[in-house]
Amino acid sequence: xxxxxxxxxxxxxxxxxxxxxxxxxxxxxxxxxxxxxxxxxxxxxxxxxxxxxxxxxxxxxxxxxxxxxxxxxxxxxxxxxxxxxxxxxxxxxxxxxxxxxxxxxxxxxxxxx
Amino acid sequence: xxxxxxxxxxxxxxxxxxxxxxxxxxxxxxxxxxxxxxxxxxxxxxxxxxxxxxxxxxxxxxxxxxxxxxxxxxxxxxxxxxxxxxxxxxxxxxxxxxxxxxxxxxxxxxx
Lengths: 113, 111
Description:
Largest sheet of chain A: 7 strands, mixed
Number of helices of chain A: 0
Strand content of chain B: over 45%
Distance between the termini of chain A: 37 Å
Radius of gyration of chain A: 13 Å
Shape of chain B: globular
Largest interface: A-B, 22 and 25 residues
Low-confidence stretches of chain B: none
Structural class of chain B: mainly beta
Oligomer: heterodimer
Number of helices of chain B: 0
Order of helices and strands of chain B: EEEEEEEEEEE
Mean pLDDT of chain B: 93
Structural class of chain A: mainly beta
Low-confidence stretches of chain A: none
């Protein structure tokens, strides 16, 4: 069974631009969560989607948004990029909300210059 | 608020046993996870505890005490490849399901 895939793997943007990251969950998994990982803050929860609906949201500004499609693939968007948005963005999938195990993708390394 | 504490770094010797502790203060506890993350890679699932007690899986064991808000990950027969960060994470059900991660413990295994 193929794992969680994320595209692109690396991205370089400049301040003020926007970016869209993509995540394809494991086949049969319907829940997708997004996390931001930085050396200083560790893994911070961004949001979770299930059945095309955002079920939960972390403490991030409205510049961070996401969506989920009917095939469970998910995208997250960051608008008006800031230097502090430079991080590893990880997507994790599970069969559903509250399932015992999340499987992480390899992440997208975003660098904002 | 929700808080998870674990040591920042630990060093141990190949072949030895190491215990990584995690304490948490959360509301709506719904399970505790341990993940391993090698540098530059994604976290990989190690263990899950929702009831008190010890869960053993090969060289890795995880313990949970819900009343004390405490867990530990025990790694036996350490190998060099166990050098990684170990993330303690708690799933909570306040306002829907959410997983909160600790900052991670970086483990260095020396020969």
